[in-house]
């Protein structure tokens, strides 16, 4: 393959795995990340050390520094930008809106501008299942309306889709948006429930169970997300949006049982009402992704969670 892929957010969870998969099949990969402290930067540094050992460099920089981003693209001439760097997390966006405006709006426009000024560079960017907001029709289809946002995070991801569409229309930038559904796996994100549940159950601390476990999530294993993203890079569509989800939603209650089984210990539960910004269910219709990307998620929660727990135990011992 002759691709050169600039992976933004390469020190992050998904970027770390994507960078490795691309390099393993012969692509040239350049990483980019600002190593912010939204969660423990030691985890980002450790991922980066692994990438470095494989010959993948992660350049330290911020999306909001346009000149530096522009210079990096001029020097490395990527054929594709896999844009994963963003301020993630629904709950954090309730109290910290500015972080999202910076990275997800200003930073996103900088990436679009770079693509505009380097014609031929295809943009594949991370959107989110959060864009479905208050949508109650299940499963969520790319055809469904996404104009009722319930969190600032979702609103910035929806804005990304709208901004990308306008750059495609005005300047012909090839843009593909990937709506990821609750991604989990080894080297995962400490701010997400699967991580904190595992940590707390192991440490004998209570887990926060929102809405009495009556939430539903379409948990998607990292390798399946990476496979879908790699296919989207290869397709480099003109302008398309894809759901990348497992298509097998489970209740929070069932999810807790799977984590308890993998850890080998029962959870202490703190029952809490539904949180602001949360949605009661996510469930991906993947028909379009199956057809266009050959996307076939393979990993069940029962297979994926034990893999995460194994990694978590090793990681927590190594710190
Ligand atoms: N993990 C999920 O379940 C999930 C679900 C839906 C969408 N997404 C999206 O997928 C993408 C990757 O998510 P992730 O789970 O790997 O998150 P992550 O937080 O682990 O990775 C994002 C990386 O981007 C970097 N970053 C943030 N702002 C930056 C900036 N201004 N300049 C440079 N780097 C910056 C961070 O340091 C981090 O390493 C994000 O866009 C996220 O919104 C993730």
- Helical proportion, percent range: 40-55%
- Which distinct ligands sit in these coordinates? nicotinamide-adenine-dinucleotide
Q: What general outline do the C-alpha atoms trace? A: globular
Question: What portion of the residues fall into strands of 2 or more residues?
Answer: 15-25%
What is the radius of gyration computed over CA atoms, rounded to a whole number of angstroms?
19 Å
* Biggest pleated-sheet summary: 7 strands, parallel
- The poorly predicted ranges are none
Tell me the CATH architecture of the domain at 4-184 and 221-245 and 284-297.
Answer: 3-Layer(aba) Sandwich
Topology as H/E string?
Answer: EHEHEHEHHEHEEHEEEHEEHEHH
Strand order of the largest sheet: 3-2-1-4-5-6-11
Number of strands: 13
Mean of residue pLDDT values: 97
Give a verbal description of the structure.
This protein has 319 residues and is an alpha/beta fold. It starts with a strand and ends with a helix. The model has no long low-confidence stretch (mean pLDDT 97). Helices cover 45% and strands 18% of the residues. Strand 2, helix 2 and strand 3 (57-60) form a beta-alpha-beta unit. Helix 1 (13-24) runs parallel beside helix 2 (41-53) and helix 5 packs parallel to helix 6. It has a domain at 4-184 and 221-245 and 284-297: 3-Layer(aba) Sandwich (Rossmann fold), CATH 3.40.50. The strands form four sheets. The protein has a seven-stranded parallel beta sheet, with helices on both faces. The protein has a two-stranded parallel ribbon with strand order 7-10. The relative contact order is 0.14. The protein is globular. Nicotinamide-adenine-dinucleotide binds next to helix 1, helix 5 and strand 5.
